[in-house]
């Protein structure tokens, strides 16, 4: 048997040769001999075939031409190999092997001549021709012949001579034009043909062979073939029976091994099922391969098995068979350019179905996103499948919401499913899904129907408000938000400019969150006026106060018409801020404020109002009589800085020793303490009098020291500035043709330098012709700059008079 990319040539025991295609169909048949066909050989083109048979016949002929060679020998011819390029006229060569190895060549007269390449070492068992190299095996080993130089370049001896060469024949195959793989018994050798350096040749061949890898296997080799950097090995295996302790033949194996330098690594191993393997021997199996198609043919006496390298489709088939759908999907995605029989979508759909069958609905729904992608029809089909098994909730989080968009009915169906059983889930979908995915009015009506059964359900009410918002029915949405006191109510008002809708809902907004409500109302005065807000809050004075107070803090003048009202509001709800309000407001009616403060007995506020109205003596009297606080009275007197008030304060305090102590401690810088000390009655016991007097003296000494220090600083600064002014005035001032007279505006220097002239220059740098200045009087002989004097800058006296 031999193999070509296009067909398989198979010889029989009855002298016939069949050409079969890859599917095993017979395409051609040749009657060669009445006896067994020993060997078939094809050239690389597949157009010429060489056949040898048991009766010694050798034929080389063209499959598609009339070219033919016949020869009959007196002994069986076991081997034949035609030149790989036999189709070329210069390569009409072939070799045959029996007792000797013969080379046949066609001469220029179209005659064939033969020459012996080798003999005397037993039968030729195997021949392989690649390029210009012929390799053959006999009983002693393997030889390689260079057809170009007509030299044998190596001899690789047989390792195990105990094995019969006819029972365990040698297997040869060329990996490429310089690499020969030899398998004999359990041994494998990889030989590389190399060029010999010119300096080493002498009488040696120009090429030599180096064994680059050699290792032993646990089986006998029936055939070899290369597969990238690995080897495909047809293995003949014998095992020992545990019962009879005899060897028996097992099924042949097709192994893939990775050769190493001195050993090998098994990549995969497959046992082959062939008929009659129990009776077969190592020599009964043959391995041929097709380089172009990566097909491997295993021939046994009864069967021909075709093997091919597993591709990604085969791998995916195996994964699907083992129900490893996720791995199959991943493999298909990685190799999508190389797979031919599978589609990623089909694998994905099978994976989804598998997950659903296992009850892993959430995982199946999640995988839909990746597998279904943008195929809307498939999405809708899967949604209905999930509906049939009651698992719409599982697929809802993964439905597409933009590209693609499914039919509204799909989304409505899922929303109804949640509305019937899970209000929170329904609310989540309404928040997450854009409102244009479904018919909003249908969902609104469904929610309202459910609210008839449970009218206080906050989740449904909030969701209904969101639906109203999607539908731009902001009024209804706002009403629900206010009822629920929902935090988004202010955002809704701002976002959709609903200020016209809240004019009658101000109290509700203030009750919900007065601070946010007031800020919003004040920020939008142009949309809801201050007057409208105050009117709406008329029945809720505490809220009215909150609004007006914040308005006043922002602007003291905007709400001036309500300042009178605010006095009562502050007095009722916020007394701590009443006094700051009275101090900051210039629009507050003082009489009304005084009346309210006196009615409520607000002493501090009354004192402030009395002082502001000019009645400081009454205010001081109230502090002394009502508050009994000498420190506050002293502070008040300091603020007013009125001598009469100090006199009243001294008169009121003169019979009260604690008050006298307070005055002595504080009035030293405002009133002469002697006035107070002279009025103290003899014999009156005053607490801490000694300390108070010491403090008065210390304060006096401190004042003296401060005055002296200030005087020294003032004198030093004056002297420094005087020196600086003197240095400045001593400097010269440049006068040139560009300067002008500030009076007549003509150049200050004459155009004719020979003429006499007189110029006056002031310290302020203004310049005048002397004749342009007014005459000095007898009372004040000093001249001054007219310009600086007119601008009230002080007189600028002349510093220089130039004459010529």
From TrEMBL:
Residue ranges annotated for the RING-type domain, each copy included: 741-789
GO MF annotation, one: zinc ion binding
Repeat (CHCR) residue spans along the chain: 518-662
Domain of life: Eukaryota
GO cellular component, one term: cytosol
PANTHER family, A to Z: VACUOLAR PROTEIN SORTING VPS41, VACUOLAR PROTEIN SORTING-ASSOCIATED PROTEIN 41 HOMOLOG
Its biological purpose: Plays a role in vesicle-mediated protein trafficking to lysosomal compartments including the endocytic membrane transport pathways.
Family: Belongs to the VPS41 family.
The protein, known as: Vacuolar protein sorting-associated protein 41 homolog
Gene field: VPS41
């Amino acid at each position: 048997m031999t193999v070509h990319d296009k067909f398989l040539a198979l010889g029989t025991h009855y002298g016939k040769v069949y050409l079969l295609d890859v599917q095993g169909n017979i395409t051609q048949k040749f009657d060669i001999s009445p006896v067994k066909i020993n060997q078939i050989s094809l050239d690389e083109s597949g157009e010429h075939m060489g056949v040898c048979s048991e009766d010694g016949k050798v034929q080389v002929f063209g499959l598609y031409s009339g070219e033919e060679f016949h020869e009959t020998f007196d002994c069986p011819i076991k081997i034949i190999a035609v030149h790989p390029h036999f189709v070329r006229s210069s390569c009409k060569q072939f070799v045959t092997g029996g007792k000797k190895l013969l080379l046949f060549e066609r001469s220029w007269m179209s005659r064939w001549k033969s020459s012996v390449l080798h003999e005397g070492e037993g039968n030729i068992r195997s021949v392989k021709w690649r390029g210009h190299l012929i390799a053959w095996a006999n009983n002693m080993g393997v030889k390689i012949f260079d057809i170009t130089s007509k030299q044998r370049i190596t001899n690789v001896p047989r390792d195990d001579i105990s094995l019969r060469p006819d029972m365990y024949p040698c297997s040869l195959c060329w990996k490429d034009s310089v690499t020969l793989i030899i398998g004999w018994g359990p041994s494998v050798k990889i030989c590389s043909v190399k060029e010999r350096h010119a300096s080493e040749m002498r009488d040696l061949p120009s090429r030599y062979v180096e064994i680059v890898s050699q290792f032993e296997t646990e089986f006998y080799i029936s055939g070899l073939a290369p597969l990238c950097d690995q080897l495909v090995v047809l293995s003949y295996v014998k095992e020992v029976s545990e019962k009879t302790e005899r060897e028996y033949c097992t099924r042949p194996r097709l192994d893939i091994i990775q050769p190493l330098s001195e050993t090998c690594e098994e990549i995969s191993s497959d046992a082959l099922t062939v008929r009659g393997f129990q009776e077969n021997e190592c020599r009964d199996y043959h391995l041929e391969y097709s380089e172009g198609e990566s097909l491997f043919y295993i021939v046994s006496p009864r069967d021909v098995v075709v093997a091919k390298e597993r591709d990604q489709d085969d791998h995916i088939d195996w994964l699907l068979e083992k129900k490893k759908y996720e791995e199959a999907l991943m493999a298909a995605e990685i190799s999508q350019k190389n797979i031919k029989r599978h589609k990623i979508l089909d694998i994905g759909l099978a994976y989804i179905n598998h997950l659903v069958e296992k009850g892993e609905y959430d995982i199946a729904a999640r995988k839909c996103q990746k597998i279904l992608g943008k195929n809307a029809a498939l999405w809708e089909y899967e949604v209905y499948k999930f509906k049939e098994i009651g698992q719409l909730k599982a697929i809802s989080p993964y439905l597409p919401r933009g590209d693609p968009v499914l039919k509204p009915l799909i989304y409505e169906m899922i929303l109804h499913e949640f509305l019937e059983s899970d209000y929170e889930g329904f609310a989540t979908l309404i928040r997450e899904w854009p409102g244009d995915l479904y018919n909003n009015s249908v969902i609104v009506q469904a929610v309202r129907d459910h609210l008839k059964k449970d009218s206080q359900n906050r989740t449904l009410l909030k969701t209904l408000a969101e639906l109203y918002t999607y539908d731009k029915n902001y009024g209804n949405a706002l009403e629900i938000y206010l009822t629920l006191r929902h935090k988004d109510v202010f955002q809704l008002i701002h976002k959709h400019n609903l200020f016209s809708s809240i004019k009658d809902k101000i109290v509700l907004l203030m009750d919900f969150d007065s601070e946010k409500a007031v800020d919003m109302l004040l920020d939008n005065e142009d949309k809801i006026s201050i007057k409208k807000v105050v009117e709406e809050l008329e029945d809720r004075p505490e809220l009215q106060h909150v609004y007006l107070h914040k308005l006043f803090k922002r602007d003291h003048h905007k709400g001036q018409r309500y300042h009178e009202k605010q006095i009562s509001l502050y007095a009722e709800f916020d007394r701590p801020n009443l006094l700051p309000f009275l101090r900051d407001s210039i629009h507050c009616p003082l009489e009304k404020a005084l009346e309210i403060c006196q009615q409520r007995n607000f002493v501090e506020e009354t004192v402030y109002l009395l002082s502001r109205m000019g009645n400081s003596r009454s205010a001081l009297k109230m502090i002394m009589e009502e508050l009994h606080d000498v420190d506050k009275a002293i502070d008040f007197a300091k603020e007013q800085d009125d001598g009469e008030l100090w006199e009243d304060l001294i008169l009121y305090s003169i019979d009260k020793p604690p008050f006298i102590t307070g005055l002595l401690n504080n009035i030293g810088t405002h009133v002469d303490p002697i006035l107070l000390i002279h009025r103290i009655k003899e014999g009156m016991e005053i607490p801490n009098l000694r300390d108070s007097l010491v403090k008065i003296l210390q304060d006096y000494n401190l004042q003296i020291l401060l005055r002296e220090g200030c005087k020294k600083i003032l004198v030093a600064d004056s002297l420094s500035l005087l020196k600086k002014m003197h240095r400045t005035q001593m400097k010269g001032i440049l006068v040139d043709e560009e300067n002008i007279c500030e009076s007549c505006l003509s150049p200050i220097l004459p155009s004719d330098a020979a003429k006499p002239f007189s110029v006056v220059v002031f310290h302020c740098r203004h310049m005048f012709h002397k004749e342009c200045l007014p005459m000095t009087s007898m009372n004040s002989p000093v001249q001054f700059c007219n310009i600086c004097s007119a601008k009230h800058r002080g007189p600028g006296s002349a510093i220089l008079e130039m004459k010529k």
